[in-house]
Structure to design on (187 residues):
């Protein structure tokens, strides 16, 4: 693309950043993300002041809601399935810096990334943080202010820093664990 076009697109980023949440404004945001390589489903609801990085590695399903002041860094791969709710101020970050040895300037530390998957119908409550390599299960709820460093089971509530399993959602019956197989000794 010509330099002038890239310059115009970068200036548009601020316009998109400040657009509201009306359906026609959300449609412009979805169009803009597709322009940068994201796959975006139907009925995206995105509030004002959402920061997005790495759109080329982003896949968003249908009926997804993203709250104001959230940061989505998809570089490294982010899949957001249908009916996911990302509340105000959440951070979904697929990229992080390595901690350098003492005496090495941290600004120049190498980065590493791992994909994140937000499964169908999960809910990230206000100010939740999801770190690289995590899968949040179907229908799971990440309680406000939680820091998720490990996978979250389907239909579970997790809370805390770091997030820990609290309970399953009402009405969900987790599968019973399979009994351990008896081992036979040769003889």
């Amino acid at each position: 693309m010509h330099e002038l076009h890239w310059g115009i697109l970068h200036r548009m980023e601020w316009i998109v950043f400040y657009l509201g949440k009306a359906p026609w404004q959300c449609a412009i945001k979805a169009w803009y993300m597709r322009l940068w390589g994201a796959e975006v489903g139907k009925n995206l609801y995105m509030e004002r002041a959402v920061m997005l990085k790495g759109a080329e590695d982003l896949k968003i399903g249908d009926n997804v809601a993203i709250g104001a002041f959230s940061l989505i860094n998809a570089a490294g791969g982010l899949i957001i399935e249908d009916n996911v709710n990302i509340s105000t101020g959440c951070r979904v970050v697929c990229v992080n810096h390595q901690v350098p040895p003492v005496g090495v300037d941290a600004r120049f530390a190498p980065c590493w990334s791992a994909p994140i998957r937000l499964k169908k119908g999960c809910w990230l409550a206000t100010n939740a943080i999801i770190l690289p390599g995590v899968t949040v299960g179907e229908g799971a709820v990440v309680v406000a202010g939680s820091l998720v460093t490990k996978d979250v089971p389907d239909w579970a509530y997790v809370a805390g820093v770091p997030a820990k399993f609290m309970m399953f959602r009402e009405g969900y019956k987790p599968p019973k664990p399979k009994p351990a197989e008896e081992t036979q000794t040769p003889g």
User: Anything to note?
Assistant: The chain is about 15% helix and 25% strand. The longest strand covers residues 164-168. The chain has a mean pLDDT of 87.
